[in-house]
Amino acid sequence: MSTLDYRILLIGGICILAIVAALFAPPIAQDINYHLFSDTHTYFGIPHFWNTVSNAPFLLVGAYGLYKLTHNKLNVAVELRAALYIFYTGVFFVGLGSGYYHLNPNNVTLVWDRLPMTIGFMALFCVVIAEYIAVKPAKALLAPLILGGIASVAYWYITETHQQGDLRPYALVQFLPMLVIPLILLTYKHPFNHAKGYWWLITCYGAAKLLEHFDPQIHGLLGFMSGHALKHVIAALGIGLFTQHLITRITIDQTPQATQ
User: Across-strand partners of 251?
Assistant: First the structure.
């Protein structure tokens, strides 16, 4: 059995184990305190000002990525363009959806925050698969994964409206790619001189989750801005650094995985 087969077995095994664990785990209800953010100040007539306006960087990096992609400024294989268009469109709509949610945090507005995030996660996952493993499975998985991401949000909302909220599918969509992507980066070769952009994206994602977790503590420390608002900024920074990586990286192998 080849090394490639072992890697596929490892990654596939982790995905299957995670799915099975989620199926047999008890439903994960939405925390009743989820919408209670530490910073509730209104400035210039905008409720939850910093949590709302801190989504603007998503609009900027999403639009920037779409502009660079449209003008062929990203060093990516043509087969990846559809997934990247979806990714950057998702990022842009995260800015709109999350901003809308933070104006009036509740389960209904949260749907419009989570939908574009799941689309972005799934599209990014397919980009990594295409660049590091092979393009054919990535192209085949793109539509099913995006539809699965959308379905995970719909399932959570429907169960929530019946007082039986279940976040298990949504948790899989958000966290499983961020577990598997580093493993792919570490075990597969890529045709470029470095993969710093992916690592910056993962690092900023991890930092953003920490900022989210310590939202009130950071608000107490800074006094004017909370951890949740900084989460938005750091997450958008990671996407911006990833985009710069796609612009500046150099191809060193003329037969990349994406052509297979």
Answer: 192
CATH code of domain 48-259 = 1.20.1070.10
CA–CA gap between residue 178 and residue 172 (Å, rounded) = 10
Domain residue ranges of the chain, discontinuous segments joined by + = 48-259
Which residue ranges make up the annotated binding site for Zn(2+)?
102, 228, 232
Return d(Cα 157, Cα 211) in angstroms, integer. Answer: 25
Residues 6+ apart with CB under 8 A from 258: 77, 79, 80, 130, 131, 134, 135, 191
Q: Tell me the pLDDT tens digit for each residue of 80-123.
A: 999 999 999 999 999 999 999 999 999 999 999 999 999 999 99
List binding-site positions.
Answer: 102, 228, 232
CA–CA gap between residue 56 and residue 237 (Å, rounded): 11
